[in-house]
Amino acid sequence: MKKLFYLSLVVLFVVFCIPCMTVAQEKPIILGAPLSTAFLYGWDAERGIKLAVDEINAAGGVNVGGKKRPFKVEVIDTRDLEPGVPVADALLAVEKLILEKKADFIVGGPVRSEAALAAMDLLSKHKKISILTTGVLTPAYSKRVAENYGKYKYCFRNSSEVPVMMGDFMAMLDDLNKTQGFNKAYIMVQDVAHARAGGEYMKKALTEKKWEVIDMKIYPTGTTDYSQGLIDSGKKGAQILFLWMDMPESAALLQQWSNMKLKSLPMGFMNAAEQPGFWKATGGKGEYMIVNLVNGGNAPAKITPWTMKFVDAYKKKWGLEPEGYGTSSSYMAVYQYKDAIEKAKTTDPDAVVTALENQDLMGVYGRMRFDKKTHQIIPSWDPKEGAVTGIIQWQAGKRVQVFPPKVAEGKIMLPPWMK
Amino acid sequence: MEIIIYGVINSVILSLMALGFTLVYSIARVPNFAHGALYITTGYIAWLLMNKFVSFPYPLAIVISIGITALIGALIYRFILIRIRGMEISEIIATYAIGLAILEGLRWGGLRGGTFTLPPFIAGSMEIFGVSIDYQRLIIVAVGIIIFASLYLFTHFNRVGLALRGIAQDERAAMMLGIDSDMTAIVSLAIGSGLAGFAAILLLPLGNIIVEQGYAVLIFAIAVCVIGGLGSWGGTILASFIIGFAQILTERFLSTHYMMVVALLAIIITLLIKPSGIFGKQKELEERV
Predict the structure, then answer these.
(1) Please, what is the Cα angle at A99 between A95 and A101, to 5 degrees?
(2) Residues on chain A touching B125 (C-beta within 8 angstroms)
(3) Distance from CA of B144 to the nearest CA of A (A)
């Protein structure tokens, strides 16, 4: 009888008191996340955002002028990375987050450049701050902010952009030119706007540096056979295979490269080679591939004291290492919002814009500061000065940070058949 | 030499992709637009059997996954297509909807990204006339030839195969001889789906298992069948070689990003010049008139 009485008390407590406690909490700050969740750059961003939100809420939430308010995430699938999905669909998703879900701030996407550029007007219309963290690498985004600051001042990006990434690659290639004597490159890119632009940019930059660019091949999305291009590159003596592809099928390229034992080092921006599961998926055939993960912390590295703390927390929550581009930047964007809101003491967008512009935060991948004119995160090769990239090489099943030198944990290795 | 070698490989790959689609159309007269979805489903089933559940050995996972796909094909006919048999537009809509549901269901179920792969039957590569080729591609060519030969023997010398051909040639006459039309359609859907699965098991080790490939395989299967002539086995093989070599030549001498255009352009040209396809019998009389 006594047991029944106590059990009833517990049930009554659960039914009546816990909802009352929830109601008593302050109104949450809603973070709207428009992401293409079926793709790596969408789901890893979602995981990064949710991890940061959980950590912040567990620590008491965001101090908004003396009141502690929790974050709440509303994720919507924009599907903008899927072939054939029109930009308008992604815009509808963003509008839904703003109007229906009552998002206070936007974080993450849209993920495809075309959709993100189109969403800028929508953000401006509704005065919603957005920190872009994944997928969009076009310099046009920051350029538009600089050209029309009054209209687009709500748009920020904390990841990177193509010219910065190319600068990183060129520095690495310069080094390979000096140490190994490499001067012949073969470019293979996917038939999508950012990859073609990346390929063209690289071709121009390499030619200016007196490299011989043997050819640039553009492959349709979904290609699974790269034999002709690879055979051609081998015959013409390419030493660097520069790749820019975001389709998962590109893993086949590395399998063929390894089977053919081509005397060239593959490097570039390759979605398929970012994830920890890439090694198993290619049976180790992707070894020696150098991949740009855009931001540090998207693979284990010791960039700042926060980097490995983040990596370990991510592993604990999601059961695997941060997977690739979009993870650490999405995680950091939530902390950037927290810091800016607390400094502004309000969620008023204009006040938070000013706070973000004046922000100086040591984060997962270095010092986080936005350029006041372009709202682009300030990059650097030194984590004490700015946001550091994450360029890794697959070595014996691990993603080893090889660039920039200040935070490198290993040296670039060449396949044994190249020696 | 690499153009010839990789041209043959590419052609056999295309014919394997289209074989199941052709078989189903030639016998049951059903345009199975769920073909691509069944192809990729087989890959995922094999992967799940090997990696998620009891870690089945590879050969057993192959047999079970192909068996399940064949069963799905049979069930699609028995419970859905049987009700709309003969209404071609309805058949296209129904099979396409089933395919879409399967593919989106796989994605919804979390099977996304590029880390799902099947291991090659034999790892490594060898050189033929100075051209490096991996063993898996050589196996594909060899097994492709065996499958075509087996299907020829099956449909010409086996009772079930002869019944299938009978239905394909004249359904009413075959029914008068006691051949069950619906049962042969079920068998053809099962074999066609099984062939899609078999192609998946052979081809997926070349890359990875991705939902989007279901759509790509369907496009290639349709391209091959339209050019070769719907339901024509000889046409399927010939069209595969035309597209296969055209793609390799385009990649080598024109530009890689026109490779997909080649297949679609070939469909348009075929429809303009000979709508029934190279060896197509359907509507051939109307075209002559």
Answers:
(1) 100
(2) 259-260
(3) 18
Q: A223 — contact with chain B (CB < 8 Å)?
A: yes
The chain A residue lying nearest B111, using CA atoms, is A38
Q: Which residue of B has its CA nearest to A282?
A: B117
Q: How far is A180 from chain B (nearest CA, A)?
A: 26
Which residue's entry shows tokens 């899609």? B196
Cis peptide before A404 (omega within 30 of 0): yes
The interface predicted TM-score of the complex, written ipTM, equals 0.76
Burial track B103-142 (b if 16+ CB lie within 10 A, e otherwise): beebbeeebbbbbbbbebbeeebeeeeebbbbebbbebbe
| Residue whose entry in the numeric block shows the structure tokens 């291009």 | A229
Q: Which domain CATH number covers B215?
A: 1.10.3470
What is the domain range of residue B71? Answer: 2-288
Pairwise CA distance, residues A71 & A63, whole Å: 11
Per-residue buried b or exposed e for A42-74, using 16+ beta carbons within 10 Å of the residue's own CB: bbbbbbbbbbbbebbbeeebbebeeeebbbbbe
pLDDT digits (tens, 9 = 90+) for A298-328: 999 999 999 999 999 999 999 999 999 999 9
Please identify among residues 37-96 of chain B the ones whose CB lies closer than 8 Å to any CB of chain A.
Answer: none
Spell out which residues of chain A touch residue B251, defining contact as CB-CB under 8 Å.
228-229
Contact status of B207 with chain A (Cβ, < 8 Å): yes
Contacts A277 to B, Cβ<8 Å: 113, 115
Helices (H), chain B: 2-28, 35-51, 58-79, 88-108, 135-157, 159-169, 171-176, 181-203, 212-228, 233-249, 259-273, 284-288
Strands (E), A7-70: 29-35, 62-64, 67-69
Number of domains in chain B: 1
Q: How many angstroms separate the first and last alpha carbons of chain A?
A: 82
Contact A272 B117 (CB under 8 A): no
Angle at B38 between CA B143 and CA B137, to 5 degrees: 25
Q: What averages of pLDDT result for each successive group of 10 residues across chain A (419 residues)?
A: 58 51 69 88 92 94 91 88 77 90 91 87 92 89 92 93 89 90 93 82 90 91 85 91 87 88 91 86 87 92 93 93 93 96 93 94 94 94 93 93 91 88
Establish if B282 touches chain A: CB-CB under 8 angstroms.
Answer: no
Domains and CATH numbers, chain A: 28-160+302-368 (3.40.50.2300), 163-293+389-418 (3.40.50.2300)
Q: How many angstroms separate the first and last alpha carbons of chain B?
A: 44
User: How does pLDDT run across A64-90, given as a tens digit for each residue?
Assistant: 988 899 999 999 888 877 766 778 888
> How far, CA to CA in Å, does A254 sit from each of A166, A268, A270, A283, B139?
21, 12, 10, 11, 20
Closest by Cα among A74, A133, A64, A137 to A101 = A74
Can you read off the two tokens belonging to residue A9? 């008390």
pLDDT in tens, B146-167: 998 888 888 888 887 787 777 7
List CB contacts of B197: < 8 A, sequence separation 6 or more: B38, B39, B41, B42, B65, B66, B69, B70
Closest C-alpha to A268, from A240, A228, A231? A240
